[in-house]
Amino acid sequence: MSRPAHTPAAKAGPVTLAMVARRAGVSPQTVSNALNSPGLLRPETLERVSRAVEEMGYRPHRAAQTLRTRSSKLIGYGIRPTAPGLSAPVMDRFLHALSEAADEAGYRILLFASPPGRASLDGHEELLDLHSVDGFVLSGTDRGDPRQAWLAKRGVPFVGFGRMWSGRQIGDWADVDGASGTDAAVEHLVGLGHRRIAFLGWPRGSGVGDDRAAGWQRAMRRHTLPVRGRRAESVDDIAAAREAAGPLLDAGATAVVAASDALAMGCYQALRDRGARPGADVAVIGFDDSPTAALLSPGLSTVAQPLEAVGRECVRLLLARMARPDAEPGRVLLAPSLVVRDSAPPPPGG
User: What molecular functions are annotated in GO for this chain (predicted)?
Assistant: First the structure.
């Protein structure tokens, strides 16, 4: 009498490839081919082996696969503490999109802790020494970042979420065109009748922040609107932004474009300090479309980043680099979109 499929044979240990081969009536090599090179098998053989794998709950041993294929199917991504403000939810959305895209391609994202502050090589060297990742996704690619040159010198595949702002372009990257986002914000405000449009940005020297400031400035000059005295800087913190926005409002700005939603929220507070109403007396537009933006009163108009598309492009570029190490670098610049809510009306009396 044959043994039933639910036999407790697993008590003797985990299901092995040899056990699956016996169950399917084939050789262990045939089972290996079914898992790694299914195209080599006849359809009926592949179906028989697949059924045995499913019934026995067999899972290939990842370490053994790594030795055979020299691929761990793991992609490293360093997590750094975020600065104060609302950037964390945005990076969470990117990480979720990245993980989904990697999963669809048969890979997993391996997270490791990266120290706060400027990007460093901490963690990257250790993972490579252990041969546990096939490549890296880098974020926070700012000026002075040592990771790209270090990885490129060692022939390690990587892709950046963000351009390499140092001037010398190294490696593959996918990024959001921040300048086009703030340009679109100014264009929208000009169309409503605003002429005194200020910019509340991050301190100069940040690649992403400078890019967003450049879009504001470009649009202002296109419409021959003055920019002198219309720009203020703040770290990405609501309380600091509240102080920085004050002089812009005192100078008579009827609209403020902010480099982040956190800065825009600081502008809301600065307006209320003066007895003014955001979205009525002064228009405000943020950047990032953070979860809080739609919950504010009034709802914050903001620039939304296509994070799902960025995640997919990062995985696509990295896999292409793994397949063709000597190929020309891939660079993808994606356009954001303006989300209009109640905080961006025409100017009073306009």
Answer: DNA-binding transcription factor activity; transcription cis-regulatory region binding
Query: Letter for the amino acid at 18?
Result: A
| 28, containing H or E segment | helix 28-36
The string of pLDDT tens digits covering residues 18-74 is 888 999 999 888 887 787 667 778 888 988 988 988 888 876 654 444 444 456 789
Helix (H, G, I), strand (E, B) or coil at 118: coil
Strand pairing category for 135-139 and 108-113: unpaired
Here the CATH number for the domain that contains residue 155 is 3.40.50.2300
Q: What is the CA radius of gyration of the chain?
A: 26
Determine which helix (DSSP H) or strand (DSSP E) holds 337, and give its type and residue range.
strand 337-339
Tokens 């359809």 locate to 43
Is position 68 within any domain? Answer: no
- Name beta bridge partners: 222: none
C-beta separation of 290 from 261 below 8 A: yes
Count the domains in the chain: 3
Contact 228, 260 (CB under 8 A): no
Strand order, beta sheet including 197-201: 231-233, 197-201, 255-258, 283-287, 301-304, 337-339
